[in-house]
Amino acid sequence: MTGKPVTPAQRRALVSRARAVRARAHAPYSKFQVGAAVLDDKGRIHAGTNVENASYGLTVCAERHAVAAAVAAGAKKVRAVAVITPTSPPGSPCGACRQVLSEFAAPDALVLLASPTGVPEETSMGALLPRSFKL
Fold this sequence. Notes:
Shape: globular
Order of helices and strands: HEEHEHEEH
CATH class: Alpha Beta
Radius of gyration: 14 Å
Number of strands: 5
Number of domains: 1
Strand content: 15-25%
Distance between the termini: 22 Å
Oligomer: single chain
CATH architecture: 3-Layer(aba) Sandwich
Helix content: 25-40%
Largest sheet: 5 strands, mixed
CATH superfamily: Cytidine Deaminase, domain 2
Number of helices: 4
Structural class: alpha+beta
């Protein structure tokens, strides 16, 4: 893995923060509440939740909100991400979120996918989005 490995405590904290923020999702239309948390290059965790809009195209996903919070706090890189969805098996980031995450996360960055109570599944950014678009 590029950079420092993600510790077991950081993994637990990522999943915990994503689960907690999921409860604050604004999903009145789909009822599909998602929480996400990213671990930045300084070891800080930033969380985000999906926010739906009556004009569906204006809806923003949890993963992108978590990345935006990290960037707003000065982060330059994402070392890991946790995504909590209401489904079992857990859902994974949509294509747009995969592309946004790939802008900040290396292909070997840890991705944790979980349901509200289940054990997280582990994958990597490269597995979710091989050959991502880069300038």
